[in-house]
């Protein structure tokens, strides 16, 4: 009998499977040998665009480079509200103020008199870069790999192919070098234009560099090295080997927050030169892909197509686990490692995993150590305890999975375009229309249906944990909510309908045309999975009799529309750069308009009183006075309702029992070094959770054999007939 | 015109569907007049399976057609004496299924459920709070206690089945009247039918019709009291969504094929027949087109359309119109990407055929190229065309799902099986499983594709000159 | 023969030019260089000057096809099309707009694509032909009938459903293979087995059914009847005569798939997390990396043309009646 092809294939597959798997789990995506090693497993969704600290600006890039590059400051891991602490610096400096004539001013002068602020940063000695071929020297002390020809590069494909490596102490000059790189003509740093307004002389510096670069390059596209140490930048100054000063225009207290981002991490000129050699870029050997830092981890495998591996940096300076935190942290076990040197984990493996469902399932099988909560897996993972509190479900609890939550420093909102003749404008009529819509769009329902309660309805632009945010009755938006029984309650829809009558659209009908008022809704939500949300949105507006026309486009075209200002209602969000109210309120600041100014104020909201208060609030320290100014601003904005204050999402993180020392932090990204894991426990649980189920293979095989029987019978019969 | 209760609205695809039906009718008339075309169709008509499938196909087509007559109803209030029509475009199907359309729950519920799928915070009149499964607004709302449910469903299903039988007796009686011969008794007529005598499989047709009527009666009656296929994430009735998807599937399956067919047949045969520079040019065009990954081509076309719609919002006043134009465009672009494969197959077959003796003979006898192609080659490649058309039909209905997954399928606001499957993908990760969207998309799609394939098999057997004995 | 091949290779050049022009036109019909710049610079804090600089750096600051502002041949060479397309013909794909070398990435990603597509293709072909022959062998019996019904059942199920179902049962419930991912070397086996099985099963219905018609067509031909009349056993007839002749339409259809082997399967790769060229293309479309898209289209076309030439060659090999001019 001839064996059908499929049967043979399956047979073969089963044989191999049986021989390959003895006692191990068959579905372990990692090599069996690594099962008990101190390795953390994580996933990344899409390939990061760049690891260059002057360019990287998105969270999927930061999850890597924040572990590698060390700016002078960082956020305290445990303390709330978020506080800056030194990382490589010896302390967090207070700025010194000067007036136009260069005279030093006392600390308490009015902002108007301050022309410049100077930050003097002391770096701790004894911090070394990770081992890297860019620092390798021969016996005579010359750099080994800085005059490479095409021959030398022939056998080189990744950075690991260089035989030698070296290191060097981090100095103030490296920090200065990186600040200069922000103005490099080829790097297009996303914060260059912002820094133009602050760092003294950087705008002119960019022009100088551009000219110098063009002269050196002479039309070449690659292999051009512009030695930034040759070009002084007026606003930064090296005081000694471990000290440098940054001079910025006016007073800008938020500057320190920027200095806690990788934009201000040290960069070794050797590394820059090393990667600028001709022939390197063709092999993807660039700073974009091979970071050279001094942080707790270094990138050892960089295959954005499959896997990224961070390994412990052997040269890492001493950094101890924080000894103080919030009152709850001690009982939660977050202070057990206090005073111990970090990092705790040897290696972190990030695998490319784009689809959310496989990621989630692998987490449940123990192959990822942490996971966000998928909306689809929500009911399975989370249960509610009494008054809106959440905890993991019983099945998860049996597995030892823990839930961590925190409200993100982000806001999602529906904006009105204030330039639009119907929904925009500052007349009482337009205001009432916007307020009515704000009441009708029931974000509590949206959060409960689509986010499984993972968020809180916003009362204004400010996210919780940001200075100026108020809890309780004082913090509610009185134009949309009433305070009832100790809780904010959305005003009834009848009230919104009444507002609509006052706005001149009784029953949602435009008296001029007799037709229902029709409003265009711009959203970058495309794809069938968003259909439900769009349907829901239509329902909200139909409560008022208003017809919503959904105009869903891709994100690019959406941005284009926003820039032109021909939207009516749109949805968007903002992720804070740093925990300061200025970083939210500037989204409503007039001169920061999208139309004409290309700012981030997509609603093009421009209220002179709000603008005036913003300018005042911007440079203030966090005093009660500042809180009062913010209250006034919020009241103006709530009354004008340029946004439907949507929601602040809540981050839900699940982690397995073998992980410890995790506390969610919305600002800090360099948190890997604090984490600890127990590999033995993990190996044991993984085995228990992933016992292969073999009967289906037998069943499939049986079915195939059984289905072959009638075929054989029929064949026999036919042969007999033919012979006759 | 001012006091019409509705305003007819003809969408682009509606128009094309009616053109399509018109041309099918013309083709039928043409076939009836030509004996050599009538023969194979008669052969198709003799196959019970094919005729049963045709009944099912016609049922789908009926749903699709009902969903292809669109209008805007008038608004209740008049404006300065003029009737104002609402912005929303409805179809006959929407009107017929109004109870399903209107009865939306809050979120998921299982088929025939009385309670919601997930727990919610419920507040009792005495101020107590509890987290439990709340009752549905419409599904099983007429029942007091959950225990009544099974009996209720059974008794209603029984009633509906009886009613369905009653309705079925009408066509049966009508048929008997038509079939009755003066020379025989009624009992003889009936027994002829039951024994399935005669060339045409009347028995199969009537039985299939009967089953469909009974199923439809059950679905119609039960869906007034329950969500028979459950509800989706925003609480819409999945049965209604599946019905609405029928039209999308039919349009993609038929219009696409019709757009590409003339080009593919003409160019494929010409290339294989003439060879030389004609072959070169045609191959150049289809190689160039098929070299571009179709997903890229479709993505670019859909994005272009989006850009056009964005630039001209005034031309598309309602969401229905925008979704419709996108559907049409998708058909066109799918046609462009799919004609090349048929073209290549035809070319290959023609290459083989032109070397065959009788065609060489026809040429030698002085037949013109056109007549050789039309008389000798086309009939000989007809089976390939028919098979490809039917394979394409189901393939296209399925491709729609894949395109929806990539994000360049039909408009996300449009009901389609593809959209249902794509959202079901996420539902499969839920625990407990939400399986009903996937299941009902599967059932509806499966019915259509199976019927189409069985019918096409018969067509193929009848039309393949070498299979005809 | 060699002359024919050379002629066909030369003929590939206008096709590739056509492909390039069409891709270019399609892409820039919907995207402006400004859009591309914005995508690459990210969503936050992008200023108009940054966009102008990005365009200048990446050669997108000139007209698309025709530069009226220049003299002589520069009218055509100093354009986006020329700058970005000519080097392709030397298989120099240049850098992606993100700065990575495309040729390097393609050479890295080709292997995972092949590792999944080749077994799927070969196993699939074997399975489909076997099934089709079995069904054809038992034509007219209830095995034929049910075989076709099973095919129809299989083909009326969306590929997405197979993938979802396969992952759900095999990986999630039964813990037999990893859910998704990829590794190099022997380790890759456990990742590939499920996608290959799913790929083969999802194609079974349509292909078996199509191949069955090819077989039936041959079986009913006169020479087959003659062979049978001569007393050859049914199996021998099937293998000797029918299989050989039915291979022509099968091959014509199959060669179309060969370029897809290299460029990978979009859905399989993204569901199973295989870092091949299929997911590379999808990523490039969604991140609007025109350089990669164009390179992939170009590569696809080249492979496709090779496939076509191979088809024609196989025609002559299998059926000498088709002459080569």
Could you characterize what this model shows?
The complex is a heterotrimer of chains A (724), B (469) and C (325). Chain A is α+β, with helices and mostly antiparallel strands and 724 residues long. In chain A, helix 11 (428-440) packs antiparallel against helix 13 (493-502) and helix 17 runs antiparallel to helix 18 (624-640). In chain A, 43% of the residues are buried. With 469 residues, chain B is mainly α. Helices cover 67% and strands 4% of the residues of chain B. Chain B has 16 helices and 5 strands. In chain B, the strands form 2 sheets. In chain B, strands 1-2-3 form a 3-stranded antiparallel β-sheet. Chain B has a two-stranded antiparallel sheet with strand order 4-5. In chain B, helix 15 (417-427) crosses helix 16 (436-463). Chain B is globular, with a radius of gyration of 26 Å. Chain B starts with 5 loop residues before the first strand and ends in a 6-residue tail after the last helix. Chain C is 73% helix and 0% strand. Chain C is built from 15 helices and no strands. Chains in contact: A-B, A-C, B-C. At the A-C interface, helix 1, helix 4, helix 8, helix 15 and helix 20 of A face helix 2, helix 3, helix 6, helix 8 and helix 9 of C.
Keywords:
heterotrimer, A: 724 residues, alpha+beta, five-stranded antiparallel sheet, 20 helices, 29% helix, 17% strand, C: 325 residues, mainly alpha, 15 helices, 73% helix
Could you write a compact summary of the structure shown?
With 724 residues, chain A is an alpha+beta fold.
Q: How much of the sequence of chain C is in beta strands?
A: under 5%
Secondary-structure-derived class of chain C = mainly alpha
Following the backbone from N to C, one meets helices and strands of chain C in this order, namely HHHHHHHHHHHHHHH
| Residues in helices of chain C, as a percent range | over 70%
What is the largest interface, and how many residues per chain? A-C, 69 and 74 residues
Mean pLDDT of chain C: 79
Spans of chain C with pLDDT under 50 lasting ≥5 residues? none
């Amino acid at each position: 009998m001839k064996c059908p092809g499929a049967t043979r294939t399956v047979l073969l597959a089963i044989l191999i499977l049986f021989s390959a798997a003895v006692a191990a789990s068959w579905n372990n995506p990692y090599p069996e040998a690594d099962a008990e090693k101190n390795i953390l497993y994580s996933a990344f969704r899409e390939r990061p665009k760049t690891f260059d600290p002057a360019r990287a600006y998105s969270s999927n890039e930061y999850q890597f480079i924040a572990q590698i590059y060390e700016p002078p400051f960082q956020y305290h891991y445990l303390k709330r509200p978020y506080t800056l602490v030194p990382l490589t610096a010896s302390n967090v400096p207070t700025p010194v103020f000067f007036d136009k004539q260069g005279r030093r001013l006392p600390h308490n002068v009015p902002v108007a008199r301050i022309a410049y602020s100077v930050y003097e940063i002391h770096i701790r000695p004894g911090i070394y870069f990770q081992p890297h071929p860019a620092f390798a020297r021969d016996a005579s002390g010359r750099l080994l790999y800085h005059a490479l020809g095409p021959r030398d590069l022939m056998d080189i494909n990744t950075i690991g192919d260089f035989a030698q490596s070296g290191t060097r102490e981090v100095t103030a000059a490296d920090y200065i070098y990186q600040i200069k790189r922000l103005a490099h003509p080829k790097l297009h740093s996303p914060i260059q234009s912002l820094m133009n307004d602050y760092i003294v002389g950087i705008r002119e510096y960019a022009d100088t560099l551009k000219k110098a670069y063009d002269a050196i390059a002479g039309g070449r596209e690659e292999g051009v090295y512009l030695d930034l140490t040759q070009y002084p930048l007026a606003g930064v100054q090296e005081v000694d080997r471990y000290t440098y000063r940054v001079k910025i225009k006016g007073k800008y207290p938020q500057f320190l927050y920027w200095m806690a981002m990788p934009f201000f991490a040290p960069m070794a000129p050797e590394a820059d030169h090393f990667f600028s050699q001709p022939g390197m870029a063709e092999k993807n050997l660039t700073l974009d892909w091979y970071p050279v830092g001094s942080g707790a981890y270094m990138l050892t495998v960089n295959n954005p197509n499959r896997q990224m591996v961070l390994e412990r940096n052997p040269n890492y300076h001493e950094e101890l686990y924080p000894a103080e935190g919030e009152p709850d942290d001690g009982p939660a076990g977050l202070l057990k490692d206090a005073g111990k040197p970090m990092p705790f984990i040897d290696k972190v493996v990030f695998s490319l995993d784009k689809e959310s469902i496989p990621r989630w399932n692998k987490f449940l099988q123990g192959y990822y150590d942490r996971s966000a909560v998928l909306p689809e897996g929500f009911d399975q993972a989370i249960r509610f305890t009494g008054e809106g509190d959440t905890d993991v479900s019983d099945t998860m609890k049996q597995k030892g999975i823990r839930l961590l939550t925190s409200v993100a420093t982000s806001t999602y909102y529906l904006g009105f375009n204030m330039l639009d003749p119907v929904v925009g404008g500052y007349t009482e009529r337009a205001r009432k229309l916007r307020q009515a819509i704000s009441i009708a769009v029931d974000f509590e329902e949206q959060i409960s249906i689509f986010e499984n309660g993972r968020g809180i309805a916003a009362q204004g632009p400010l996210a919780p944990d940001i200075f100026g945010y108020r809890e309780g009755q004082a913090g509610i938006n009185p134009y949309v909510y009433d305070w009832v029984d100790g809780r904010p309650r959305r005003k009834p829809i009848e009230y919104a309908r009444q507002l609509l009558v006052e706005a001149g659209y009784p029953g949602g009908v435009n008296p001029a045309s007799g037709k229902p008022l029709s409003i265009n809704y711009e959203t970058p939500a495309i794809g069938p999975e968003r259909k439900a949300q769009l349907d829901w949105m239509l329902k909200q507006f139909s409560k008022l009799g208003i017809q919503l026309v959904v105009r869903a486009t891709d994100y690019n075209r959406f941005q284009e529309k926003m820039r032109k200002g021909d939207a009516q209602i749109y949805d968007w969000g903002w992720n804070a750069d740093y925990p300061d109210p200025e970083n939210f309120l500037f989204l409503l600041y007039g001169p920061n308009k999208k139309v004409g100014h290309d700012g981030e104020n997509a609603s093009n909201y421009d209220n002179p009183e709000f603008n005036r208060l913003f300018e005042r609030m911007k440079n203030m320290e966090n005093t009660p006075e500042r809180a009062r100014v913010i209250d006034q601003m919020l009241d103006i904005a709530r009354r004008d309702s340029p946004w439907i204050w949507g929601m602040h999402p809540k981050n839900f993180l699940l982690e397995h029992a073998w992980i410890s020392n995790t506390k969610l932090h919305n600002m800090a990204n360099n948190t890997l070094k604090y984490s600890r894991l127990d590999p033995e426990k993990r190996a044991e649980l993984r085995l228990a959770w992933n016992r292969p189920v073999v009967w289906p293979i037998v069943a499939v095989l049986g079915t195939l054999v059984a289905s072959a029987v009638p075929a054989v019978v029929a064949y026999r019969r036919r042969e007999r007939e033919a012979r006759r | 015109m001012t006091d019409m209760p509705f305003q007819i609205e003809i969408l682009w695809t509606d128009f094309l569907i009616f053109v399509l039906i018109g041309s099918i009718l013309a083709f039928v008339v043409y076939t009836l007049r030509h004996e050599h075309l009538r023969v194979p169709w008669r052969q198709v008509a003799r196959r019970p399976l094919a005729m049963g499938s045709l009944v099912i196909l016609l049922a789908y087509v009926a749903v699709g057609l009902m969903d292809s007559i669109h209008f805007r109803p008038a608004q209740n209030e008049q404006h300065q004496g003029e009737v104002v029509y609402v912005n929303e475009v409805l179809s006959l199907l929407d009107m017929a299924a109004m109870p399903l359309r209107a009865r939306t729950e809050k979120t998921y519920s299982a088929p025939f459920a009385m309670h919601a799928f997930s727990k919610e915070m419920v507040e009792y009149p005495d101020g107590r709070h509890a987290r439990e499964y709340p009752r549905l607004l419409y599904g099983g709302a007429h029942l007091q206690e959950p225990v009544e449910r099974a009996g209720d469903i059974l008794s209603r299903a029984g009633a509906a089945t009886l009613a369905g039988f009653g309705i079925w007796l009408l066509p049966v009686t009508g048929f008997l009247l038509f079939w009755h011969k003066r020379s025989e008794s009624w009992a003889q007529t009936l027994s002829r039918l039951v024994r399935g005598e005669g060339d045409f499989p009347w028995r199969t047709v009537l039985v299939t019709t009967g089953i469909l009527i009974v199923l439809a009666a059950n679905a119609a009656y039960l869906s007034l009291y329950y969500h028979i296929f459950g509800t989706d994430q925003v609480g819409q009735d999945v049965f209604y969504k599946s019905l609405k998807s029928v039209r999308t599937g039919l349009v993609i399956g038929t219009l696409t094929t019709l757009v590409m067919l003339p080009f593919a047949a003409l160019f494929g045969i010409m290339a294989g027949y003439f060879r030389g520079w004609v072959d070169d040019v045609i191959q150049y065009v289809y190689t160039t087109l098929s070299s571009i990954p179709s997903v890229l081509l479709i993505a670019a076309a859909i994005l272009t359309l989006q850009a056009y719609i964005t630039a001209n919002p005034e031309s598309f006043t309602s969401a229905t119109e925008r979704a419709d134009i996108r559907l049409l465009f998708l058909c066109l672009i799918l046609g462009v990407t799919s004609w090349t494969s048929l073209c290549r197959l035809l070319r290959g077959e023609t290459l083989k055929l032109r070397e065959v003796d009788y065609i060489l003979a026809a040429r030698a006898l002085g037949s013109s190229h056109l007549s050789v192609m039309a008389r000798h080659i086309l009939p000989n490649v007809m089976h390939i065309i028919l098979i490809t058309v039917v394979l394409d039909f189901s393939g296209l209905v399925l491709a729609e799902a894949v395109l929806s997954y990539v994000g360049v399928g039909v408009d996300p606001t449009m009901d389609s099986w593809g959209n249902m499957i794509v959202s079901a993908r996420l539902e499969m990760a839920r625990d407990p499983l939400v399986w009903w969207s996937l299941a009902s998309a599967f059932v509806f799609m499966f019915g259509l594709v199976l019927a189409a394939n069985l019918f096409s098999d018969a067509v193929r057997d009848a039309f393949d000159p070498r299979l005809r004995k | 023969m060699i002359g024919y091949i050379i002629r066909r290779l030369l003929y590939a050049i206008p096709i590739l030019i056509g492909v390039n022009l069409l891709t270019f036109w399609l892409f820039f019909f919907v995207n402006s260089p400004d859009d591309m710049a914005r995508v690459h610079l990210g969503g936050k804090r992008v200023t108009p000057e940054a966009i102008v600089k990005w365009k200048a750096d990446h050669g997108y600051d000139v007209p698309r096809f025709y530069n009226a502002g220049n003299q002589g041949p520069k009218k055509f060479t100093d354009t986006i099309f020329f700058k970005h397309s000519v080097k392709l013909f030397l298989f120099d794909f240049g850098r992606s707009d993100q700065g990575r070398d495309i040729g390097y990435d393609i050479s890295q990603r080709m292997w995972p694509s092949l590792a999944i597509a080749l077994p799927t293709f070969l196993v699939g072909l074997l399975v489909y032909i076997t099934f089709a022959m079995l069904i054809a062998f038992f034509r007219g019996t209830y095995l034929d009938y049910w075989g076709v019904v099973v095919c129809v059942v299989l083909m009326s199920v969306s590929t997405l459903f197979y993938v979802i179902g396969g992952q759900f049962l095999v990986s999630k419930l039964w813990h037999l293979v990893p859910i998704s991912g990829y590794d190099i070397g022997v380790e890759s086996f456990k990742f590939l087995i499920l996608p290959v099985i799913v790929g083969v099963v999802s194609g079974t219905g349509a292909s078996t059914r199509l191949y069955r018609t090819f077989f039936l067509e041959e079986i009913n031909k006169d020479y087959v009847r003659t062979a049978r009349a001569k007393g050859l056993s049914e199996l021998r007839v099937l293998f000797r005569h029918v299989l050989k002749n039915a291979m022509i339409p099968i091959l014509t259809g199959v060669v179309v798939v060969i370029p897809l082997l290299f460029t990978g399967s979009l859905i399989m790769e993204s569901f199973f997390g295989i870092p091949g060229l299929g997911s590379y293309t999808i990523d490039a479309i969604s991140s609007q990396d025109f350089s990669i898209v164009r390179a992939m289209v170009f590569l696809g076309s080249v492979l496709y043309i090779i496939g076509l030439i191979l088809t024609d060659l196989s025609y002559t090999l299998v059926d000498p009646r088709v002459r080569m001019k």
